[in-house]
Design a protein that fits this description.
The complex is a heterodimer of chains A (419) and B (247). Chain A has 14 helices and eleven strands. Chain A has 419 residues and is α/β, with parallel strands linked by helices. Chain A folds into two domains: 3-291, Alpha-Beta Barrel (TIM Barrel), CATH 3.20.20.70; 309-414, no CATH class. In chain A, strand 1 (45-46) and strand 2 (52-53) form a beta hairpin. The two termini of chain A are 36 Å apart. Mean pLDDT of chain A is 91; it is low at 402-419. Chain B has 247 residues and is α/β, with parallel strands linked by helices. Chain B has eight helices and eight strands. Chain B has helices at residues 10-22, 51-65, 67-79, 84-98, 109-131, 153-163, 204-217, 226-232; strands at residues 2-6, 29-32, 43-46, 135-137, 141-146, 168-173, 178-183, 187-191. In chain B, the strands form two sheets. A five-stranded mixed sheet of chain B has the order 4-5-6-7-8, covered by helices on one side. A three-stranded parallel sheet of chain B has the order 2-1-3. The longest helix of chain B has 23 residues, at 109-131. The N and C termini of chain B lie far apart (57 Å). The chains are: A alpha/beta (419), B alpha/beta (247). The interface between A and B is large, with 62 and 53 residues.
């Protein structure tokens, strides 16, 4: 089969993995080698679905042994199959990289023959890139759950980021849809990476020249909407992964219907708004100091689709508002709906050299459409309704509907799937 | 009214700031010589670019205001917006008075404008790190034409000199007729005629074809959202994107 044909098949098969980041690594160029990593990450293009292309995202093989119901590459699926050679992957990566099409390689694979055999092929490919081609660009490598942990650790020496996909947020989900994937095996692979990364960071503090081990950390992906799991369950899982397993990112992927398996829900389009809300909630966990328990509980197990999670939290906790912009603690500024990290930082900086009025906030670029209902400036309130849950909610939801013209998709303007 | 006229270079502008300070003058405007249209009563002072004086202003800004300030000033200079010189001059005057705290005065019009414009330039620079596309030419040279809004070609050069250190490359700003050239050792800024034709290497078409194929198959069909795509990647940048060109 021609290389172009293989690329077509194996990139189409990889696109449902939503991870796209190329950040977190400072791998430097070595003389005579090609490439370097940029700590902030760099997007190189954006496809028609609005997602960024940063890495050459491909499967090594899509000839899969497993039969996971939600997956296009399951053994029972009628889809063209192909398998690369390590040389082919290296050649494509280097040639795309030299033309600045990509920031590096994202290499995953179906289970080809068996778990260890697949992991060995992935390892062989990244070793070749690093040693023979002197490639110093970004590499995101999948760890194959169930493969020997020694193989996975070995691969960590060459990758910038690694990931093990959990896919389904509950054990029941896995049993039903992906019977060959086992929760314990997945968690063991994640846990062993966590430990090795921790050890590497400790050693690095003492010895500057410690060889790198997954310097950009690990990530995972959860599929949303293929099982009846609640958002509460998903956010609790994410929280644990961030806190106990030190994950860098959890990606959420709205289930795109790919088969008619009766075990799967019948939906006409992927639950994109829900996916967006989960990302917003995820951001609140990582950058805004929220805990999953604050955003969701047994009475509210799912995120409000009409309102962003911060606004719904604020409406349930109106007794904390309004906050005075000139005196509120930074962590409280971050909790005001409509004020993000950038705005909070600007407010914190500007108020050091003078008190801020409502017009000043506008001048420094804070968007007040939502924030005005939750703040005072020099003691004055600027919302056009009283501070009552129903009145404010009405205002916030109204502005959302006008903005989106009734179409759900445009809500995606708020998602920056970047880091 | 007093007008300072300088040669249009960054060094020239810093020299003008030096002169204003030491001559204790308050120029009403600082303008490049090819763009001067002062009125009849304008008093014109021609500033002679002086590397030494410029260097002293450069260091003073860095030390007495902040490294961030000198970076912002340079970025605003590269924005080529109308009246950038006067904006920079006003900002530096404030900066020398307030020190590093000048960038906290976000409600001040000058400070706000400096930060806004410099951010725009910084954003385009970052965007270009991703959107530049090299084509391999006969003779083993990688060539990338661009048409950025701002004059950022020297800002992206160091990144590619580090990253693609073992290949010859050219980044050509076809709108401004300037280019950075890299020869596996160092990069230089040079003039390069925008109309020049180049011959592609033999394998180039194949990789372009595969990249286009990859780009098209990477999109998830059920999630098409071209509005979002255009927001991140405005259409004005598509002209030189391999993946956005018809065959």
């Amino acid at each position: 089969m021609e290389l172009a044909e293989k690329l077509k098949i194996l990139s189409a098969a990889a696109k449902y993995d939503v991870s796209c980041s190329s950040s977190g690594s400072r791998r430097a160029n070595v003389p005579g080698g090609v490439g370097s990593a940029a700590y902030s990450g760099i997007c190189h293009s954006w496809t028609d679905d609005g997602r960024c292309v940063s890495l050459l995202k491909i499967l090594f093989s899509n000839e899969c042994l497993y039969n996971c119901a939600y997956c296009v590459n399951r053994i029972s699926s009628d889809t063209p199959r192909a398998t690369f050679t390590p040389e082919e992957v290296a050649d494509l990566t280097i040639n795309f990289y030299r033309r600045n099409y990509i920031e590096g390689l994202f290499l995953s694979s179906a289970i080809y023959r068996n778990e260890n055999y697949t992991m060995e092929l992935l390892l062989k490919t990244v070793k070749k890139l690093r040693h023979e081609y002197n490639f110093n660009g970004y590499i995101h490598l999948k760890a194959i759950p169930g493969a020997d942990l020694a193989l996975i650790s070995e691969a960590g020496k060459y990758a910038d980021r690694m990931s093990v996909n959990i896919e389904l947020p509950s054990e029941e989900g896995l049993k039903l849809l992906a019977p060959r994937k086992k929760k314990e095996v997945i968690l063991k692979s994640i846990g062993s990476l966590t430990e090795n990364i921790k050890r590497y960071r400790e050693e690095r503090k003492v010895f500057k020249n410690t060889p790198t081990f997954v310097p950009a950390g690990q990530s995972t992906q959860l599929i949303v909407g293929a099982t009846p799991d609640s958002d509460l369950k998903i956010m609790r899982l994410s929280e644990t992964l961030y806190k106990s397993f030190d994950l860098k990112r959890v990606y959420y992927s709205a289930y795109v219907p790919v088969s008619n398996d009766p075990k799967l829900p019948r939906i006409s389009s992927p639950p994109l708004v829900r996916e967006n809300r989960l990302y917003q909630a995820d951001w609140l966990l990582r950058f805004y100091g929220f805990s999953a328990g604050e955003l969701l509980d047994k009475q509210h197990p799912n995120l409000d689709l009409e309102l962003d999670p911060k606004a719904s939290w604020a409406l349930r906790n109106l007794h904390l508002f309004p906050v005075e912009i000139n005196t509120a603690e930074y962590r409280m500024l971050l909790r005001v709906p409509g004020i993000g990290v950038t705005s909070a930082k600007r407010i914190a900086a500007a108020r050091k050299v003078g008190s801020l009025g409502y017009e000043d906030l506008k001048k420094i670029g804070v968007v007040l459409k939502r924030a005005r209902y939750f703040i005072t400036c020099r003691g004055k309130y600027f919302g056009d309704v009283n501070i009552r849950e129903d009145l404010i909610k009405n205002k916030l939801v109204g502005s959302f509907q006008r903005k989106s013209d009734g179409k759900q998709l445009t809500m995606f303007n708020d998602v920056v799937p970047y880091r | 009214m007093l007008y300072y006229i300088y040669d249009g270079s960054f060094q020239g502008l810093l020299t003008a700031v030096y002169e204003a300070y030491y001559r204790r003058e308050e120029p009403f405007d600082i303008t490049p010589e090819n763009n001067f249209s002062g009125d009849l009563f304008a008093r014109q002072v021609h500033i002679k670019t002086d590397g030494d004086k410029a260097g002293r202003v450069f260091r003073a800004v860095k030390e007495k205001i902040s490294p961030r300030a000198i970076k912002q000033v340079y970025y605003v200079f590269l924005s080529e917006i109308m009246q950038r010189e006067t904006l920079i001059y006003c900002y530096l005057k404030k900066g020398f008075k307030l020190g590093k705290d000048v960038d906290l005065y976000l409600t001040d019009k000058t400070v706000h404008e400096i930060q806004k414009v410099s951010q725009k330039v910084g954003r385009e620079k970052h965007r270009m790190l991703g959107l530049i596309r090299f084509r391999k030419l006969v003779g083993d040279i990688y060539y990338a034409p661009i048409e950025p809004d701002y004059n950022i070609v020297t800002l992206v050069a160091p990144h590619f000199a580090r990253r693609l250190s073992d290949q010859n490359w050219v980044i050509h700003d076809t709108r401004r007729g300037s280019a950075v050239l890299y020869n596996k050792k160092e990069w230089v800024l040079a003039q390069l005629d925008p109309g020049r034709e180049f011959r592609l290497s033999e394998e180039e078409k194949d990789y372009q074809q595969m990249w286009r194929g990859y780009f098209n198959s990477a999109s998830v069909p059920g999630r098409t959202n071209t509005r979002l795509q255009r927001q991140f990647m405005p259409v004005r940048y598509w002209k030189y994107l391999i993946e956005k060109q018809e065959l």
